[in-house]
């Protein structure tokens, strides 16, 4: 699948995003551990401020007015209006930087990653999903067109590592059963959530499908849930305390 522009239109479709995509403290623990030692942190593609540390000096960058407007409700600092591929900061201006589930929205990912590396003295964190691991989640069976969208947008781990240079650690991140950050894998044991249009609206990949395709995919899941077929195949997910799928935290150092 070819996607001409991977960026989701958050200005028109990002309202209420903060209510569905909250910081999950278990995932945040991995992020904050990787930020250890940093005093100044840049968050690019910051959105409403998920995973920003509260004990460090944070500068946020966010191009969407709709997303910036949701930061105050979370007690986050106002965000600078800029884009990843043209950051208005000096070389090495920050101890650390972070890009939390955002790089797949960047039209020029390589340029954005180079800019992040340029303005960061030490560790650079990227929270993302590994496109080569997306098939391990059961939604690959129910939502194949959606997964094709995701595979077309998410960069490979090799691409990210090479674009950043230096050395990169790739950490698989377990997702808790009651995860409060509403990305797709957050609902691995709560499949009924996908029947809620508000849940899907907070997952940008659905915005790349036409309404007829979305309706067909959701109906297939709803039918299998009603008939008990989903539980026959995947019901054990309802009691799994964590699920390690495609979520990855990359920790890059120069």
Structural overview:
There is one protein chain. The protein has eleven helices and eight strands. It has a single domain, classed as Rossmann fold (3-Layer(aba) Sandwich), CATH 3.40.50. The longest helix has 17 residues. 33% of the residues lie in helices and 15% in strands. A six-stranded mixed β-sheet has the order 2-1-3-4-8-5, sandwiched between helices. It has a two-stranded antiparallel ribbon with strand order 6-7. It is an alpha/beta fold and 254 residues long. Helix 5 links the parallel strand 3 and strand 4.
Distance between the termini: 34 Å
* SSE run: HHHEEHEHEHHHEEHHHEE
Major sheet strand order: 2-1-3-4-8-5
**What is the correct CATH architecture?**
3-Layer(aba) Sandwich
Which homologous superfamily in CATH is the superfamily? Vaccinia Virus protein VP39
Strand content bin: 5-15%
Number of domains: 1
User: Could you name the ranges where pLDDT drops below 50 across 5 or more consecutive residues?
Assistant: 11-15
* Rg from alpha-carbon coordinates: 18 Å
Task: Please describe the biggest sheet, giving its number of strands, its sense, and whether it closes into a barrel.
Answer: 6 strands, mixed
Mean of residue pLDDT values: 93
Brief account:
This protein is α/β, with parallel strands linked by helices and 254 residues long. Helix content is 33%, strand content 15%.
